[in-house]
Amino acid sequence: MSQNAFARAYHSDILYSFSRSPTAIISAIVALAIIAGALCAPLIAPHNPFDLATLDLLDANIPPAWSASGDPRFLLGTDDQGRDILSAILYGSRISLLVGFASVLFSLVIGVTLGLISGYVGGRVDSVIMRVADVQLSFPAILIALLIDGIARGLLPRDAQDSLSLYVLIFAIGISGWVQYARTVRGATMVERNKEYVQAARLIGMRPFTVLRRHILPNVLGPVLVIATIHLAVAIITEATLSFLGVGIPPTTPSLGTLIRIGNSYLFSGDWWISIFPGIALVLLALSVNLLGDWLRDALNPRLR
Question: Is residue 232 a part of any domain in this protein?
Answer without folding.
Answer: yes
